[in-house]
């Protein structure tokens, strides 16, 4: 037979678990929001703790400090590709490598436009050379590569095409256009503001992919 004290003792761990989960989530969300708004210059233990409304010691306890928190964000960026660019074909039957690259390129374009944090990380890649930026960028690149390998299956690119170089140029262009659209609303005189503007970019991406891969 449980006494009142026994019941309280059993309930306490469950409450602590719930509190920890909520606190971890608050810290993690605060860190992502702060990183997106301030970049690494304003990213620190004290700033994250203030944003999350918690004691900074909890960041050390739950994440092992700032490095562990960045690692957690990096893991989240890994799942970003899977969440934003689902592995199912959405009814599209992919017969060729060109089909695959068209889907990936257009999905990547749409995903980037919806995620300011990832856009900032991409911008940092070419402007900042810090271990933290490299850690986050590597996580994103690894996830994209893993997605492509899984989706590609037995699909083969046309012979004689350097897929690594072509895809690097393609995705670099997509990234630059999205960042330019967010900051300037245009690039090289091409408007990047409205849905119609981005539809034109999507059409151009399709033509480039089909021109190379058929």
UniProtKB/TrEMBL annotation:
The keyword Transmembrane does not apply. InterPro entries: Homeodomain-like_sf, HTH-type_TetR-like_transc_reg, HTH_TetR, Tet_transcr_reg_TetR-rel_C_sf. One of its GO terms (molecular function) is DNA-binding transcription factor activity. Residues 44-63 bind DNA. Residues 21-81 form the HTH tetR-type domain. Keywords: DNA-binding, Transcription, Transcription regulation. SUPFAM superfamilies: Homeodomain-like, Tetracyclin repressor-like, C-terminal domain. PROSITE patterns: HTH_TETR_2. This is TetR family transcriptional regulator. It comes from Agrobacterium bohemicum.
């Amino acid at each position: 037979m449980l006494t009142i004290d026994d019941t309280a003792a059993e309930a306490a761990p469950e409450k602590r678990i719930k509190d920890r989960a909520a606190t971890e989530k608050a810290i993690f969300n605060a860190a992502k929001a702060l990183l997106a708004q301030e970049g690494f210059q304003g990213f620190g233990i004290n700033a994250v703790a203030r944003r999350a409304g918690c004691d900074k010691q909890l960041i050390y306890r739950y994440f092992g400090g700032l490095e562990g928190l960045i690692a957690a964000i990096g893991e989240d960026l890994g799942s970003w590709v899977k969440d934003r660019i689902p592995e199912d074909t959405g009814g599209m039957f992919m017969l060729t490598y060109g089909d695959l690259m068209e889907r990936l390129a257009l999905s990547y374009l749409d995903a980037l436009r919806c995620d300011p944090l990832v856009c900032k990380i991409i911008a940092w890649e070419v402007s900042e050379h810090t271990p933290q930026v490299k850690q986050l960028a590597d996580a994103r690149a690894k996830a994209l590569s893993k997605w492509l390998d899984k989706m590609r299956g037995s699909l083969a690119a046309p012979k004689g095409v350097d897929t690594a170089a072509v895809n690097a140029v393609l995705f670099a262009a997509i990234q630059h256009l999205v960042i330019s659209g967010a900051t300037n609303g245009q690039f090289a005189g091409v408007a990047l503001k409205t849905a119609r503007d981005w539809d034109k970019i999507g059409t151009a991406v399709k033509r480039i992919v089909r021109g190379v891969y058929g």
